[in-house]
TrEMBL record:
Involved in DNA repair and RecF pathway recombination. GO terms for cellular component: bacterial nucleoid. Residues 1-78 form the DNA replication/recombination mediator RecO N-terminal domain. This is DNA repair protein RecO. The lineage of its organism: Bacteria, Bacillati, Bacillota, Bacilli, Bacillales. GO terms for biological process: DNA recombination; double-strand break repair. It comes from Anaerobacillus alkalidiazotrophicus.
Length: 249
């Protein structure tokens, strides 16, 4: 039985001398795996459609195991993303995070649209660091990880200055700081952005301008939060850390 889907390549695995196994995140079927026979050969008709981040339509033979890719057509290759090592690194982190947090064949059109918009915005030159933080915030729901950002996680206070407590799973007010001595003091801007990233519709994204110190604080919060609650160990994040060190050197 032939099946046609719209999808994005989120992982490729070499198989034998000439083949690739593609992991696609699709609008219609969620995450699926297909065998692209001969895709490693430069002249193969499946070569271009089998590249990481490629957005296209895929026609495959559905089987009880891996599907077998028959043909595909590129909708968007996201060339600018793939041509820049930093954009590629951030894109790789995003698709690996999605891959690790989703199961095969779980249909989720919202998540497909989120992935597409994030990759598209990075390719178009929007701030890739902020887009990554937005994706991380929205993927917390997929990971089944709660986060309390609508007030103090301990007493419920809605106003005032907040710190971020990994232990308490979100904001704590100045009156409750005694319950977590390791709570990270955050700026008002960081608190507002965390709420915004969690709730807002990505289609409404406009111009992005965030101070470097705020970016650094958001990164620290979310990396620590994922380390504590997700149980993930991503190769792409280690590579991002190496790239960041290279920038500073």
């Amino acid at each position: 039985m032939l099946q046609k889907v719209e999808g994005i390549v989120i992982r490729t695995t070499d198989y034998g001398e000439a083949n690739k196994i593609l992991t696609l995140y699709t609008r219609e079927l969620g995450k699926i795996g297909v065998m692209a026979r001969g895709a490693k050969r430069p002249k193969s008709r499946l070569s271009s459609i089998s590249q990481l981040f490629t957005h296209g339509t895929y026609v495959f033979q559905k089987t009880t195991g891996l599907g077998v890719l028959n043909q595909g057509e590129i909708i968007n290759s996201f060339r600018d993303l793939r041509a820049d090592i930093f954009l590629t690194a951030y894109g790789a982190y995003i698709v690996e995070l999605l891959d690790k947090l989703t199961e095969q064949n779980e249909i989720n059109p919202y998540l497909y649209e989120l992935l597409f918009q994030i990759i598209k915005y990075i390719d178009e030159g929007y701030d890739y660091e902020i887009l990554t933080r937005i994706f991380e915030m929205k993927m917390l729901k997929v990971a089944g990880v709660g986060i309390h950002i609508d007030g103090c996680a301990h007493c419920g206070a809605q106003e005032g200055e907040f710190s971020f407590s990994i232990k308490e799973g979100g904001f704590i007010c100045h009156r409750c700081l005694h319950i977590d001595e390791k709570a990270l003091k955050i700026t008002t801007s960081s608190a507002k952005l965390l709420r915004l990233f969690y709730y807002f519709d990505l289609h409404r994204l406009g111009a992005i301008s965030v101070k470097p110190e705020t970016k650094s604080q958001l990164k620290q919060i979310l990396e620590t939060y994922y380390d504590e609650y997700s149980g993930l160990h991503l190769k792409s994040r280690r590579f991002l850390s190496q790239l960041s060190k290279m920038q500073l050197d």
